[in-house]
Batch of 3 targets.
Target 1
Amino acid sequence: MAVTTAPQTGSLRERIAGSLATRVGLFGVLGALLVVVVVAGAGQGAVNIPANEVLGSILHKLGLDIGTLPTHPRGEDALWNVRFPRVVLAALAGAALATAGAVMQGVFGNPLAEPGVIGVANGAALCAAFVIVFDLAFVGNWTIAVAAFIGGLVTTFLVYLMARENGRTEVVTLVLTGIAINAMTSAGLSFMLFMADTTAREEIVFWTLGSLNGARWEQVWVVLPLAAFGIAASILMARQLDLLALGDRAARHVGVDVERLRVRAIVVVAVLTAGAVAFCGVIAFVGLVVPHLIRLIAGPGHRLLIPASALGGAVLLVAADLWARTAIVNADLPIGMLTSLVGGPFFFWLIRRARKTAGGWA
Amino acid sequence: MSGTNGTAALSARGISLSFGSAQILRDVDVDVRAGEVLSLVGPNGAGKSTLLGVLAGDETPDAGVVSLGERSLSALPAKELARERGMLLQKQLLSFGFRVREVVEMGRAPWHRTDRADFDDAVIAESMKRADVTHLAERYFPTLSGGEQARTAFARLLAQETPILMLDEPTAALDIHHQEQVLEVARDAADAGAAVVVVLHDLSLAAAYSDQICVLSRGQVRAVGTPAEVLQPELLSEVYDHPVRVLEHDDQLIVVPVRRTARGGK
């Protein structure tokens, strides 16, 4: 009781300064990392282009006569027609997936919610496969994205309705619901593979493995608005997601229209997931790994978590794609395989850590 | 604070509510007045928490209306409601590891982007002091004890600065010192003009801090009135299905169950 307010204001000022430093530092580091991986990613490949030439080429495109242009005769062409679409698509997909993970964890009030884990990515994949098999193109370039969006939306609502009870989702229920959803969508996907002709089958297989191979600017123009809309909408609901951590009832008591927030958040997650998987296929665990790492560094507040996750996701996926292209000479490994390879052990680590600190999830 | 002392800040008329085949509330009338502490008491399953939920707008009654001043409670959007009433729940939930200060800060959400947001820092500091959690400010909420979590939630409620305060068994997780302290703060709030409604199990506590006590039994109001009017041994013995004595000590009413074994057994 006998606490004066004087030290409070002092610590408050320090706290604000501290959080500002964390904020600037976090975004600074993530931004710098993104530039590094983008330049490195664009430079590596069959035609090697040094970093200074990549930068020079970008600056020239921006109308600045600074730096050297690629010296290789096909350098400029390789950069702008092959590498940049791929790197940009990787960055957008990574940002979208990580943001979707952060929002989903906020809405479910559960640290394990992730589009891949609970089957939303697979639901999107099923609908995309359907479009591929029946060779549908009702909205041109956007067809696969729209189908993936519908699949993602339906599965997210399904999981939400089945796994949520009394304002929170128990981890066990959520994971078990995910298993059930994944079983059903896998069955559907198998059926699509069975129905498909050889070309469609190959397309679906590569799609489910996840790959950025053959990325084109047209695809970037589809994913860009989806990712931008999703990330902006997520940032706008960040404050309310914080309040949702109190549970449905208490969140309503402090003025959150919980039902509306949920529906909006689920639509946003579906948009982001659809944008990410539309052309890159299923890339798991990005939405799990990135928000967790950011929370460890910057705490659980969504106003910082969401934009930082978007940046972090972009960094992670561009780096992962670079690794996928260069790990084995002349082979373009499926990126979904690599993220799962890293994400699986991370999942183990999360479980161990939760058991040590909080007696596990119940 | 809205309204002058004595006027009904929140009034419920003819409230009935069933969950499935179980009727929880039956034709309940109750008024929560500005400047007063109203205690809801009664045995387990009497419908106290459900009634509080109805008064807070969490539950929609099957019949009856709750009005907040001139308006019907169900017509108010969540944000506007949050500026009128705050609630301390029995059980505290928090999905992520926020710090205590951040949790208290959440109570300021209804005032975001209003003139009153200018006072956020001062209100938060004052609320934390009143709930005695200032020393916990930088601690992570999930690492606190049950009582400390309850006090943090109480600080969040105070930070919300609503003219109506609702507390659902606020003393359940608290030691004697903090029990008295929480009710003391609630009492002070009422004296400053707030309408306070609190669910309590401890009838002596209810007697000490309430202006009005409402006894609920099987979803119906059995008695409403001042502690002296309501805390009658016959009524309480019947409602609780256990013999109860009411003693007077230093001008305070003390309610104790009659214990057969305390006299050496039969």
Target 2
Amino acid sequence: MKRIISLALAAVMCLSLAACGGSSSQAGGDNKLVVWTLAEDLKDFAAYYTEQTGVEVEVTVIAPADYPTKINTTLGSRNGDVDVIVGEPQMLADFYDAGFFADLSEFDAQASEKLVDYVYEAGKDEDGVLRALSYQVTPGSVIYRRDLAKEVFGTDDPAAISEKFSTFGAIRQTAAELDAAGYSIFGDTGSLRWFANADAPWVQDGTLQMTDSRLNYLDAAVDLYQNEYVAFAPEWSAAWYASMAGSLPVNAGWAALDELDANAPTTQIFSYVMPSWGAVIIRDNAEENKGNFGVAKGVCSFFGGGTFIGVNEFSKNQEEAKKFVEFCTLNEDVAQWWLEKSDGDVVAIESVLEANKDYENTSFGNQKTYEFFANEAAAVDYSLVTRYDTAIGDAFGQAIEAVQKGEKDKETALNDFYQEVKAVYPEIKTPID
Amino acid sequence: MRKSEVLKTRLIKGLLYAGLILLALLCIIPFWMMLVNSTRSGNEIMTSFSLIPCTSLLENWKLVTKNLNIFQGMLNSLLIAVCSTILVSYFSALTAYGLACFKFRGNKLLFTVMLVFMMVPAQLGLLGFYDLCNALGLVDSYIPLIVPAIASPGTVFFLRQYILSVLPRALLEAPRIDGASELTIFHRIVLPIMSPGIATMAIGAFIGSWNAYLVPLVLLNNQKLFTLPMMIASLNSVKDISSNIGATYLAVAISVMPIIVVFCFCSRYIISSISAGSVKE
């Protein structure tokens, strides 16, 4: 027994020493870049970078949900093992505050000239210092079914459809028309959330902005829900995916209500409100509906997600890391390469978008999607985005849900919403103060 | 009369069996669905429900192997889990034996301190633990994932209670009279007697280490050193989520296999240790 145990212990020692030895030798290579990312994209970029420059790049992909934990813990201890770090827009403000992203001011002039405005703005911290850049833009759109549009509205022209989605009032009207024809305007009312920042940021000068547009958003959501104009298939649900390829059964709970309308046991979803990466998801799940979609403008231009790249403040290899960031985000040839390689990603360099604007996308009824997305991205007003958007937007979404389901009346729900904002951010003034 | 009684017991038995089978199905179906889903494409999983395996196993497998080196992950996880399980078993047994069978000053106090530390969740110390590892230059190695297993108060607590119930003092006195050293007594006599209890704790330790996510996530930077749960989580970063769902199921199914194997080997011990305790008292 003793011998076995001592053997086992010796084995443990050897193995753990081996593991240790392996890692220290890896840290030794000085010219090698280490990238921590939450999107697989950078693996392709890294391979291309190595191919072009010969510099070795090691990419570690970390699950998006855990990325902030990882960064906060490791960079919180001023760890310099990683050279290039990334962030999604909603994480950036906190990362900037914590001082994790190094100053990229040397690229400021280049970035402001080459990149779509909102990307340049999102890359700057509160003091206006450039700290992160992105290779992609993720402008939003209303992705709609051309065949249904022709049937109901007599046209599938994106401009005409954009008109139908131009205000919350217009959306309510459109929803009623679609319902009369037996179709649902959205999967569920959550689609409207993208338009929450239509005219003002959530917080301005320390005050919560409850604008008319936001109240209209609430009313529209309640209207769509209570009149059953939506299909009750929430984003990412099985039914939602299925709807892209065809019809879906009306929520079983509502079947009894439909008994009057005996010939409508199923419905079809007319449109999806999503950032540009959503258009790719729809394309890939459309099956026989492929080519049957179009993209139109909604209530306001918005963007969602996107990966921003920066340099670790504590990196020992900052110069090389900056070169990598420049390569990924500011090089026109690389942008063109990525546009082709990614098959659907919209790049952030304006001149490259300009060069591709005549490309007719067969998946979207030969619409010139790059031109459309370039215009939408240019129209995004980044001053409407605040660091509070995720938390306040979620709270407002819950308030809307409560009104939709009749759990609360509008006034109580709004009051509760203000209370909640107050509880999370005591420094924000709300209308109830 | 007799016939109706027989019928009655049969009926009751039948009902009981039906109930038990239902419960067993409830336990098995999620596992079965995981296995079935690992043979279906993401689209099929999203849009429909099935208990019959489909044909996409090979595609899922290709997707898994394209995106991650699952055997490397398995090897990494296995190395960490086996090493830390060995350490946890041996040193916890040693400590528990000391606390249970030796009278020395501070014994009670030490035991109380251990109980207190049992109550503190490990996540609380994460930041400090990282700082410590960083200062010692142990980041990105397996040492901080394996060696701390030596000190696991929960296991010590369980084994101490176990020794008190299964180890008669007379068993220690005999070898002492014969002149055996204390370590020999431990290795030759105490350890074999404790082995069912140790096996029980070892299973728990192995599974805990195999499934550990947060600490490895923070400590390991190099993708080659990633453990299996980290690799599976990073599948989420691959762009097309819907096509990855089948692949994720497959990866999870593969990752569960070793646990099932370990359980098959050790379940005998768990059952015997539980029944041993109940019969003797």
Target 3
Amino acid sequence: MFSTTRRIPLPLRLHGAAIYVFLYLPIALMIFFSFNRSPLGTFPITGYTLHWYQDLAEEDFLVSAFWNSVFVAAVATPVATLIGTLCAFGLVRAQFRLKPLFSSLILLPMVVPGMLLGAALLIVMVPILGLTLSIWTAAAGHVVVTTPYAVLAVATRLYGYDRRLDAAAADLGASPWRVLRYVTLPLVMPGILAAALIVFTVSLDTFGVTFFTIGTQGTLPMYIWAQVENGVTPTVNALGTLLIVGSVGILGCAHLLLRRR
Amino acid sequence: MSVAQTAGYVAPRHRSRSRWPIYAFLPITVMDFVLFVLPMLIMGIASVLVIHEFHVEYRLTANNYLFFLGSPLYLSILGKSVLIAAVVTLACLVIAFPFAYYLTLLPRHVQRIMLILVILPFWTSYLLRVYAWMTILGERGLINRALLGLGILDEPVRFLLYNNYAVVLVSVYLYIPYCVLALYTAIERLDTSLFSAAMDLGARPRQVFLHIMLPLTLPGVFASFIFVFIPMVGEYVTPTLVGGARGMMIVNIVVSQFQALRFGIGSAMVFVITALALCMVLALRRMARLEKVFGV
Amino acid sequence: MTSRHEWTRRHMLQRAAQAGIGGAALSTASRFAAPAQAATNLQGPVNAFTWGGRIIPTEVADFQKETGIKLNFVGASGNSENLAKVKLGGGAQYDIVGVDALWVPKFYQEGVIEVFDMASWPQYNDMFDQFKNMSIWKVGDKFMAQPWAWSPLVLWYNTNHIKTPPTSIKFLWDPALKQRIALTRQQEDVIAWMGIATGAKKPYDMTKEELANAKDGLKRLMPNILKFPPQEEELVKLMADETIWVTALSAGGALRIKDAGGPLCKGFLPPEGYIGYFDGDCLVKGAAHRDAALAWMQHRVQAKYVMENFLKYRRPLAYRGPLDVLKQEGKSDLAHELFYDQPDLIAKMVVIGPPPNLGDYIDAFNEVAGS
């Protein structure tokens, strides 16, 4: 089992193949049903149609939900990435007594059940901060949930960072700002980009927090939730298929970015 | 370059380093204070007040906590949630471990593509993936159709969906990519020459696994607990959709308290669950070496 | 088959439009007053926090075309969650909230909605007397809610598997129905059904003993219950693929199941009693876009939209228009099957509402379903 050569034992390869089947079976079915004529979005197979993709274009609430999601993620991503990057620098480069407690607290918003954090946020945002719930309050909620992911992603990169590079630049007369700008940041950039991608992904799919902090413009998971509750139509499968296709594109880009490491 | 000159340049660097914490932690501290600590604090306050629907009496009480912590039923549902989360986490670990090891054996550029393929399902909606499982496991779903078609079954089986097993299966599906990532990162950093050395010295594969591989990859295992176990205790959607009539987990109970307009009791439950999560993160953080998790 | 359905639908809409024009002539020019006025000086958007089945895309698009006002729609979940959200968000957040039956007075007591005058609105005269005189929804002549749909919750059963028509609600406990029943998740409604079955006087206001009996009933029923899905449509689907054989759904349930490719189902109103609902849209107190919201409420009760909504969801509405069209079309049977011609049922149903001891209901549910 523990081979040191490149020959991979057959059981491991079979297990690997089985995992990919497990991961992709539901997605294959979803794509399949998006082309199936039956209005149930499930079996039986009644014929091939593009009807559900046409429906998709006509669903105004769905299209606006999609753009709302992108908007929230687009607002949350730079903010969470910036806050998370700063925090990661601090965590990696500073030593202080309460660091274990502090870093655990920072991770907490990531693991507290979203429905519960959302309810708590609602109570602070509306009566105490006097805000009107909107796409912006949802974005704020997303920033809270996603920042820990950004911290982790950037910290990962920073831990592997050779600080002697900074020292060398400083020795050669670079100001701290120039060291940061021309040495540290370019080297840490893949970590920051990975953080942004992770934040964007998590934001797109955040449900519990959105449920409570969104105003009258729902996001995509909210729309899909309403659909799942009302019985999913093949239109939702069509949407899921488009999401996968788009994801492959974006992940392709991510792959190229991560490869620069 | 003289020592003095070097020192002259080192000084500002030291100053800049010492300033890092203040600037770096300010945004996250402000944000987490306003949008995390404050909400939790308010829940904490609400949890010790007498609240009847929308009317708050400013009188201290422990009843909200007693209602939850004194109820064998709700404690047993919390216990059940923890049990389901533990089963899911263990299943994820058992399935993901050999898989993550397999990934590390592949050529480097293939590893990346295979890993991305593991993450890809993340990019469709979580809800859609849960729903897709309903079309696989249902009475008229893929599995039943296949088994009926092959003549293995005469009648569709019904135990595939709407029970705790379905919750476990679907949750393993939803969370396993996190687990693969965490374990892959841990295994990838291992020095494989250790295995061959141990084998040369006569160790059996089982011994190599138990005494070398597992201890060295424990951070990945603990990281999996943070990414799988804790969120799984707080699952809401999966038990609602595939859990069946008795599928409730603890967050479903908390939500039902808010539906009953019992804000005090609901807040107490949120507070207890958050405190539990904090304890678990604190306990696991050091062992998990979390900073290594996303080293994809 | 689809095309025939389309034809019928278009045809019916035409009939409805004709009927609407007739109605307008009778009720003077007031019918057109609202949209005309709306076009001039209304501030939007209208934020409607209501159930999915209340809004059809065409009426939203037309409203925006006619008045330039956008309608934002947020899906509501349960009455109590909606109450909490509206209480927190208030008029700054929401202009309209959809509320069920006896929850309406509760919302009013909590001070989150305000009354309005409906007498001059289109279709007011077309509304069933039961709604015109709905005293629990009225303060003087003003209304707390604009009535919309109503229906008894019918127990629908699959005739392939249940051959003898049930005569009592007790049939739910038949061991042959193991895992073949699903009910919507709203806990207090499930407990109220159990109250009806165990002879409680007021199923939404049970005494301790009655509640204990209801709980016991649910405990004995649990082996037969497959799931408590969040919403009605999932019940339709489960009935359609015969995963379950019995459920409680609004009028027209059998038609919806059939449309989803399901088997022939029949409905049954238990002699012991049955739950029913009527719902409406309420005006949130201090709504930021109050006038626009009122314009929207008037816009959507025009005959053609009422008809379209009816055709889409096929449960009785508070307005007589679709009923008249059905009768003119010689479809009195269909009207009867949908209970549309029996508004007197409204007084007989056990109406959905907030139990004074809501927490006890939810505990009872949790104690059975959670154990």
